[in-house]
Amino acid sequence: MIIDFLNSGKACYIEGSIIGTGAHTELYSYFGLGNNSNMSGGYSGIENLYGIDGTLGEDYNFAYLYGTNADYGIDELEVGSGTAFLESQDGFVRGVFYEQGTYKTIAASSFFGALGDGTGENTKTSLMANHLEFLYGNVNAGNNVITLGTHLGKNYPNPFNPETKISFNISHEDAKNATIEIYNIKGKKIRQYSISNNQSVSSELTSSIVWDGKDFLGNSVSSGIYFYKMKAGEYTLTRKMTLMK
Predict the structure, then answer these.
(1) Distance CA 203, CA 200 (A)
(2) CATH of the domain at 190
């Protein structure tokens, strides 16, 4: 049933020991997981979970509230075709995300509800916003409420070669004259995309652009750090990305 759901172009988040124990199944590959026998065994005593820099997890640091109870072990996940975004203090992977092209998945052996609130901006709300942004589009997470609105998402993949997709969401009010601009490490603008919405339709625009790693003249740029900036109404946000050849 889950495989049919994903094959129809849906997205799925799954957590806990519900991928299945014992023998490797077809479902593992659908979630970008490898065939690790340790997935069938729990690990108790997990005190903290950490986000992996540069992925959906970024630099999060959460106390795991069930970690000191032997009844709440967390299975080890092996990365297959997916990308790790969460690991525990023992270095084992606890979360993997995967984009196949027609569907997206997130698998976490830890329980989201068992995470402590984190510190600073790295809260459960912002982590869930990252999950939703990856699976369904772009969201804002303000005042602990996740809502749609004008928002520049993360590019994927990152690092990338030769191209990367930049997702965004723009409200009807901000859509006029909206742009996404690409800058090099020296701050020079090397590419610009214009974004517009049908102003007769009072709705939000959720879409993406693909940067092919080329400048205004169609020349391929060199490896390095680049920045993409969205301007939409009063909204402005810049994010970093890495081209790695």
Answers:
(1) 9
(2) 2.60.40.1930
